[in-house]
Each structure stands twice: as C-alpha cells, then as structure tokens.
C-alpha cells in the first residue's frame, strides 16, 4: 500500500476530513491531497511526523507495507465479522446494533 493510500485509510478511520487533518498537523490541505492521490510520491520526513502525530501512529506504520501488530485485527474478531457477513447481516444493520449496544450501556 502506498504512503498516500495509508494516510487516507488512517484519516478516514479517524473520521477526519483532509481539511481537519491539515489544520491539526499544520500542513497544507492541497499537499495532503496530492500525497493521498499519489501525485506527490516522496513526502518529507517532517510532513510524515506531523501527519503521524495527528493520526496517532508511528511514521514507520505510514511507510511500511504491513500494519504494525497493534493495528492488526484479532483473529476472533475477524471470525465474528465473517460470521456476521455470512449470516446476511448488512453493514448498516451491524452499525445499528453497535449503536444500540452503546446506547444501552449509557442507560445502565
């Protein structure tokens, strides 16, 4: 996975827009966009440090192909997700179930 793809994946996973990431990292939004789209292929180490800090990951995890052990999915969770998919539950239904569970916890 390219650096830009990895940054986009992590950014989206954190629920951040390009604008929010740029603001928090103190870098230009257009530069982040060009890295994510693969136009800028060699971002500086300073840029990577700033982005990694906001995304709460190491610089190494941005530039390596494999996710770090802390970012891998536990095999039991993976099996549960596969089981849910195979049973016909849609992503939306699964999200609704999780939101309901969170709501129930707040009511206890």
From TrEMBL:
- Which SUPFAM superfamilies does the UniProt record give? lambda repressor-like DNA-binding domains, SinR repressor dimerisation domain-like
Keyword tRNA processing recorded: no
Q: Which residues form the HTH cro/C1-type domain?
A: 7-62
The Sin domain covers 64-102
Q: Which GO terms describe its molecular function?
A: DNA binding; DNA-binding transcription factor activity; protein dimerization activity
Positions the record marks as coiled coil are: none
Iron keyword on record:
no
A GO cellular component term found in this entry reads:
cytosol
Keywords per UniProt: DNA-binding
Protein name stated in the entry = Transcriptional regulator
Report the source organism: Domibacillus epiphyticus
């Amino acid at each position: 996975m390219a650096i830009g793809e990895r940054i986009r994946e992590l950014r989206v996973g954190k629920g951040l827009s390009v604008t929010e990431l740029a603001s928090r990292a103190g870098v230009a939004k257009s530069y982040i966009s060009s890295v994510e789209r693969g136009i800028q292929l060699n971002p500086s180490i300073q840029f990577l440090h700033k982005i990694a800090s906001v995304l709460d990951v190491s610089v190494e995890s941005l530039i390596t192909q494999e996710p770090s052990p802390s970012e891998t999915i536990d095999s039991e969770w993976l099996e549960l997700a596969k089981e849910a998919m195979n049973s016909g539950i849609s992503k939306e239904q699964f999200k609704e179930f999780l939101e309901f569970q969170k709501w129930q916890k707040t009511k206890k």
